[in-house]
Design a protein that fits this description.
alpha+beta, DNA Polymerase III, Chain A, domain 2, 2 domains, eight-stranded antiparallel β-sheet, disordered C terminus
Amino acid sequence: MKITGQIEQIFSQAVALDQSGGLRNTIYADKREVFVLNYDHTVLLRFRLRAHESPFNEPISFKADDYDSNDFSEENGRIVFVTEQNGFIRKKSCGRAEYTPDQIQELFKSYAAKPLDEENDVILNATVLSLLDTDLSHIEFSGEKGDTLKMVQRNIYSGGLIEIQEQGGGFFKNELKTAFGPVGIKTNDFASLFQFQDTLKFQFPARGKDDFITVRSIDKNKRDMIGIIACCLYDEIIKIKEVQNGR
């Protein structure tokens, strides 16, 4: 098949993030859904194709770094990328990803179906990234009921501390329904999410790091994205459990 438009952009962005170290990804696609799973299983993104976009008639999976062309097919259990240039045809074949699209789809559904108890909805724009130190590995999120989101980065070696909090007042402040946190997201994971869309809605769980964070695109007509983010606290990485256990 030959992909165009939004699907090609998703694949290309997943590759770019992989190569820049933002997220090392595997890609899974079937029918009207595309999934991106990062290498340490802390981020799982689901993109739903728009009505005018052609679905994947056969399930397909590959490592993002293997993506080589928007024209590809599956032959004898391998993914073959085809490039035509200057009268020549170039074929690159690679193996499938670690899991099957069905397994990843079921994993996503198992989390997407879980209600977030007393979740806090917070809308964030990519502009917040300019306030962060990308050399620090994690961001800690927390907040008090009726207050705004607080973001903290810690340098565990020097004792340095960065605190970021949305100013109160105005019609569009993110006032929290309940107190929550602290929960953490790896800095690279957080920044990478905004490569797919500039404005995102985060849902933070009241139960803390034993739960998970959901992120959604605001404009579904532009890109219908839902992400499941495993909570972590600095060097303690909590993986999405079913993947960790081999599903």
